[in-house]
Give the backbone structure.
Amino acid sequence: MPLDYATALALTAGLQVSCGALLHRAAAAPPGAARAPAVLIAVAASVLIPLMFDRSTAYTSIGMISFLTAWLASFKALAFGANRGPLAAQTWSLPQFVTLYALPIVPTDPHRQQLLRSRSSNGAFPGSSSGASLSGRDTTNGSKGGNGTSGSGSGSGMVTSSLVGRWVVKFVLLAAVVFGLVAEPPQLLKDILYVLGMYALLGVVMDGPASLGLSLLGLTLEPHFRPPWESKSISQFWGYQWNQAASNSLRTTIYEPLMEARWVRKPKDDSPISTAVAAAAAAASVGKQQLNGNAVPQAAATAHPAPLATAGKERPQHGKQLQLQMAAALCASCLTSAVIHEFIIIYTTGRTTGGYWFVFFVIQGPLILAERWALRFLRSNFGIQLPTLVRIAYTLTILLFLGHHLFFVPAERMGLCQNFAAAMRHFFAALVGLEPQPLPPVHWG
């Protein structure tokens, strides 16, 4: 039975803080079974939180809260139990730990940034060397203290202002999108507006908490989004440009454990296989094994070649095995994403998309593998390197085509796009004091 909105919102905040504190206390226990009770309590609370809201009136809140709790928070808890992810990255203070658990933010991983830079410096990943984080500083120079605070208060102030500026821009963009949809534009323009609306909405939800985490706690954070229209490949779009909080959750709980063939990572694990996995994951985030058309398996193999092949004649066999392992981990990550997205729709509407969203996200794995093969084939057999503009064009064309048929059209049939846009227009009208008429309850079934 749903609760009234204010009560549900207060309980959500209380449960998130309480679960974060419980997990922080469990950090003293060794990873694995000893942390399991706290992890299970946090995951159960995260999964149940969206059910407290009334989907006929609070559907926009349910969509966001299910993303923040049932997906991000629960995956952070699961990763923490296995000594993975941002919560286990270092020793955090209680306020920092709870903030990282409850909010959609990801701290910068200096080791991962260093791997990205080293791969770029030797030519493995040209164009992917950006070590930029939301700190405005180089995160690989050891400037962070043991408690996770940044080395310079002035840097945090500068970045907080930058984040607030981004938040305002995305807030305005979201308003422009939802009011622009009233004109019923042509379908292609409507799909582009949907993408921009998602980009703006997620940015509004994420940049605000990020500025809070930076200004109050001195955290150094990864960017949530990089411009999606700069994506030079499908893998770069998903693994580097779009929604890094979600990408990180899949990388730490699905991709890396499958690559390492174990769930619990030992403390201070710097084994060769973990280093190789980290090199691959750093360049691909959730296993999207190619940032700019360059295959990651070879780069991963060169990070620590010894465990992957002990003799020259064995190297091709081990390289092929690694590629198959990475392909399986990638597809498993996409499968997990597909299931989660369908569950978010169930939370929001009580219905599924009929499997369309599931298919959309599942096929991203095979699509990325096919893309990688095609680019390597052109490069190795014909010496063809596609121009950047061509790659951006085909990437966006493929994603918009699939998004239209498998993501946006099913959402429109359910009334999801229309009702979300109407709710946001109602919010903006109320924000400027227009006192709009109350929205009628939505009956999704």
Remarks:
- The mean pLDDT is 80.
- The two ends are 17 Å apart (CA to CA).
- The chain is about 65% helix and 0% strand.
